[in-house]
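Supplementary notes for students who missed Thursday's class. We covered one full example, reproduced here. Read the sequence, then the structure, then the short commentary at the end.
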Amino acid sequence: MSQQDDLLGLFWQFTPILFMAVGGLTSAIPDIQRHVVEQNAWLTARQFGEVYALSQATPGPNVMVMTMLGTVLGGWGGALALTVAMFLPGTILTSIVIHLNARNPEATLALAVRRGLAPVVIGLMLSTAWVMLTTLSGDWRGVVMSFATALLVLRTRLNPLWLIGAGALAGILDII
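Structure (token representation):
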């Protein structure tokens, strides 16, 4: 099989998953992790968690995880394949929804869908948090740091950059 076939295969494997990324990429992370780690064993859970964490710590949109994951799985071509797979389905679906909503935003179906999607998206985001927590491989220090970070974000006005720096320092010092 050629590299082009491999990259097209990578694109087509991720496109259906990313087409259902309702609420953004965060909602699709459990399926992406399942595909990469459990079904294909391309990465370990820990490696997946590290790719995700590093992509979230870099400037830019949170969808950079797909570009970074593509780079790890297939080099520059993989980065391009997964970046296009990330944006193409969402762009098409969003364009259709915007068009239909603009025609009749007060339609009963449109209102019901908008009202019903909020709890689903929140549930998908919580499932992502759970999946990412499991990538810590039972390391109690990582679990404690995760919950401490969440608590600090929710209870203080501490700039998240301090927390990111503290996490990086904990890794450098081999605390985590």
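Commentary. The chain has a mean pLDDT of 85. Helices lie at 3-19, 29-39, 45-57, 64-103, 108-134, 140-155, 160-172. If anything here is unclear, bring it to office hours.
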